[in-house]
Amino acid sequence: MKVELDIFRELESQLKDLVISATKEALVLNQKQLKSKEWMSLKEGAAYAGVSYNSFIKFRLMGLPICEIDGIKRVSKYEIDTFLRKNSF
After folding, report:
1. How far is residue 18's CA from residue 12's CA, in Å, rounded to a whole number?
2. Which UniProt keywords apply (predicted)?
C-alpha cells in the first residue's frame, strides 16, 4: 500500500510540474504574439500595456488614439508606446 501512495505522489508531482511548465510556455508565447502585432483589440492592448481593461479605457479618455471602423476598435502598438512615454513621470 505504501508503494502505491509513493507512486501516486510521484505522478501527482510530475503532472503538477507539467501543468506549470505548459502554462509558463503559453504565457511566453502569448506575450511574444502581442509584441509582434501592430494592431490589437482593446483587451490585447491592455495586456500589452500591462494594465487592466478598465485602466486602458481610462487611457483612451486621456487621449490614447483608438481606430474604430464599423464598430470594430483597434489600437496601434506604436500609439500605446507613445502614450505611455508621454504620460510617464
Report:
1. 10
2. DNA-binding
Pairing of strands 67-69, 72-76: antiparallel
Nearest alpha carbon to residue 43 among 25, 57, 32: 57
Profile the chain (89 residues) by mean pLDDT over runs of 10 residues: 66 87 86 79 94 97 96 96 93
Query: And the C-alpha cell for 83?
Result: 502614450
Look up residue 49 and give its three cell numbers.
500595456
Q: Domain map of the chain by residue range?
A: 1-36, 38-89
Distance of CA 36 to the CA centre of its chain: 13
- Predicted structure pTM score: 0.61
